[in-house]
Design a protein that fits this description.
Beta-Lactamase; 6-stranded antiparallel beta sheet; Phosphorylase Kinase, domain 1; 733 residues; 43% helix
């Protein structure tokens, strides 16, 4: 039987009862998967575009936040500056109107004519009507030049009794002024000039086209008229067209394509013209009439959605809430909003606003967000476009990588199928394991039978290649006759990694016990001494095997001698220098044969750790059972750390040579200081056992003859308990 048959056992073992000697570490599959995945990603081209996507996303986010923060600060400053300029111009214009009115009311001629008019109004003369008409005409003629000069288009004179005594609208003469004028008349009669905010006229006055009608937008500036004693005797009111000066003044605050400055009252009524009148007609906010204007016709309220984008509100205009700007201004809070809100069209906008307490209305400068943040939106679109292209490229590279990897696997499989690997001709598949497949082959020139181990194409990673190479390099350094020999190592043009080693026929010690049961003490000593010889050479070179177990010890006939042991599988070997440098701190080995220090301090294992495993192997050979049995890995590790092994004689149920039993139990001491300090020490102690001479060459030849004829029965009963297949793999770093 070939030692490589152990690979075949690993493949079909899951369907049969697993012996307890194959106890493994359950977590290996998870850690191996994570490590393999990490190394796989490390060598793939598509990983770099993904890294670029992540870095670009992070950089884009940081740059976007920085640009957005800078733009907001600049926009806030611009809006505030523009608003302050507009506010200052409006307040200066209003103050100018007050001064103009005061100048006209304080004019000597105006005061004289007003005095005569008031006196005629109080008299009871028979020609009172004619006198009043003459006085009113004289006052109108006197005010005319100044009114024309200051763009006033009408006047009204109110006496102390709050009666209109003269004016451009004859229908008002003799009655109290409209309620909309009362507050301003009273202030003027109290001696203060004042300008009203725009309001709709109650009386019929001429609009901009010359048509007399009510509801015409108008403003009035009132100033006190004093007599020769400087007592206020009347209020002189002068009409202003708001769309001529007031609105035009605010329209100077237009900002790019969507920015505008407008005035509003506390109820959200727009007091100036919007720059979007044509659009408001299309949206149904203004009536579709030739002279439709937004002044005094549009409520600055939030429709709840962008009307310009097709949104249709479900409430009447008067039932909608005030926009955030009007609500804040009407409550006396001046401010700037660069985060965004809906304007009266529902368009997301940014704005700055202020409330003018003296004149009882607010002024706001507003810009659509799409324009205010136009450069930022362009940057965002460009960034997302580039990011999308980068993601598409990573997907393309990923698919390309998968395709290339598939072609490489197919090429490797084709090379193997062709039964030709460099100068080696493959003849027969011997087995397969977790890392690779083993074939029997022959060198093309030497014609020597060779075992050729191929790294499985499906597990080719940086880690697996490194472990594969390490196993070859370390094993090739060892020349002891009880260590398997390596002949060659290479890689085919198709990327198949392989190494050639001596071809062995026989049986591993695990299979030996499973088929033939416990072995005689003399043979156990004979086998253990050979194992010690191989390990002593490795330890002398500073190497620790870390996975000594029956499955890695192969029994064969070599050089005409029977019962020759070959130590296999140096894939987990580590140099002591690596461990001292902290390069190896993970558990490695098979838990059934691991020393206490390999469990507690994996980085501190040394030759004594291998000697512990040799003792466990000797125990298994003598009794057919492992030192400790457990249902879980944690329970098994705890026993290695704390439990005292049962003596082999007790476990076997019959006497065992005392010297051999003591030697095995010495190897299984928890403290390394109590174990044999070198493999040679253990070999010499075993040689001194009286039973060492009980196994002769003749007995070995007889055994091998029976083995070759297929005699021998298994010592494992059908009902024997076994461990889960999930616990059968060696712990590997």
């Amino acid at each position: 039987m070939s030692f490589l048959d152990r690979f075949r056992r690993n493949v079909h073992h899951s369907s049969s009862r697993a012996p307890a000697a194959h106890m493994t570490w359950a977590a290996r599959s998870v850690s191996h998967t994570l490590t393999t995945t990490r190394l796989f990603l490390k060598k793939q081209l598509w990983l770099w575009p993904i890294i670029a996507v992540v870095l670009l996303s992070t950089l884009g986010f940081i740059v976007h936040r920085a640009i957005e923060s800078t733009m907001k600060a600049n926009l806030k400053s611009e809006l505030q500056t523009l608003l302050e300029v507009e506010r200052a111009m409006v307040e200066r214009w209003m103050a100018t109107q007050e001064r103009n009115a005061e100048a006209m009311s304080n004019d000597a001629e105006t005061r004289r004519l007003v005095g005569e008019l008031l006196a005629a109004n109080r008299s009871d003369a028979a020609d009172k009507t004619a006198t009043l008409a003459k006085a009113r005409q004289a006052l109108a003629d006197a005010l005319g030049p100044a009114m024309t000069s200051h763009n006033y288009f009408g006047y009204v004179l109110v006496d102390r009794e709050r009666r209109v005594v003269a004016g451009s609208e004859p229908e008002l003469v003799g009655i109290e002024p409209p309620a909309s004028l009362t507050r301003f008349v009273d202030q003027a009669l109290d001696g203060t000039a004042v300008v009203s905010k725009p309001y709709a006229s109650v009386s019929a006055i001429r609009d901009a086209s010359g048509v007399r009608r009510t509801g015409v937008p108008t403003m009035i500036v009132c100033a006190p008229v004093r007599d020769e004693n400087f007592q206020v005797v009347a209020s002189l009111g002068l009409r202003i067209r708001p769309e001529r000066d007031f609105t035009q003044l605010l329209q100077l605050g237009r900002y790019n394509e969507s920015g505008e400055t407008y005035a509003f009252d506390a109820n959200g009524l727009m007091l100036s013209n919007s720059r979007f009148d044509d659009q408001l007609i299309l949206l149904g906010i203004l009536p579709d009439q030739p002279d439709a204007r937004s002044i005094l016709n549009v409520l600055v309220r939030d429709p709840g959605g962008d009307l310009t984008a097709g949104y249709r509100p479900q409430a009447r205009r008067s039932e909608m809430p005030l926009t955030a700007v009007v609500e804040a201004a009407a409550s006396g809070k001046n401010g700037v909003d660069v985060e965004g809100h809906n304007d009266y069209r529902g368009v997301p906008s940014v704005a700055a606003w202020a409330w003018l307490d003296k004149y009882d209305f607010g002024v706001a400068t507003e810009v659509d967000m799409s324009e205010a943040y136009g450069p930022l939106y362009i940057l965002k679109r460009t960034f997302w476009t580039l990011l999308g292209l980068l993601m598409l490229s990573s997907v393309a590279i990923f698919l390309f990588t998968i395709r290339v990897a598939k072609l490489q696997r197919e090429a490797r499989a084709a090379a193997i199928e062709a039964k030709q690997l460099g100068q080696y001709q493959l003849e027969q598949k011997l087995g397969a394991g977790a890392m690779g497949v083993v074939y029997k082959g022959r060198h093309a020139m030497l014609r020597r039978p060779t075992a050729i181990k191929l790294l499985d194409a499906h597990v080719v990673t940086d880690q697996s290649i490194a472990r594969f190479e390490r196993e070859v390099q370390i094993t090739s350094q060892l020349t002891h006759p009880n260590t398997v020999q390596i002949f060659d190592y290479g890689r085919t043009p198709e990327g198949v990694f392989y190494y050639a080693m001596e071809y062995l026929e026989g049986i591993d010690l695990q299979n030996l016990i499973e088929r033939y049961g416990p072995q005689p003490p003399g043979r156990v000593i004979h086998l253990l001494r050979q194992i010690c010889g191989s390990l002593y050479e490795a330890h002398s070179q500073g190497l620790v095997h870390r996975d000594v177990k029956p499955a890695n010890l192969f029994l064969t006939r070599r050089g005409g001698e029977a019962d020759v042991v070959k130590v296999l599988d140096f894939g987990l070997v580590r140099a002591r220098e690596e461990q001292q440098n902290g390069d190896d701190r993970s558990m490695a080995g098979t838990p059934l044969y691991m020393s206490p220090e390999a469990i507690q301090l994996p980085g501190s294992v040394d030759g004594c750790s291998d000697i512990y495993a040799v003792g466990a192997v000797g125990y298994f050979l003598l009794t057919g059972k492992t030192v400790f049995e457990a249902n879980t890995v944690m329970e098994l590790c705890d026993k290695h750390l704390n439990a005292i092994p049962v003596a082999p004689s007790t476990r076997l149920g019959k006497p065992v040579p005392v010297e051999l039993e003591e030697a095995i139990l010495a190897c299984l001491e928890k403290s390394r200081a109590k174990r044999p300090q070198t493999a040679r020490d253990l070999a010499q102690r075993l040689a001194r056992c009286p039973a060492a001479t009980e196994w002769s060459i003749e007995e070995a030849e007889v055994w091998w003859s029976r083995h070759d004829r297929g005699h021998g029965t298994s010592s494992i009963s059908p009902g024997a308990p076994t461990l889960s297949k999930d616990l059968e793999a060696t712990i590997a770093r």
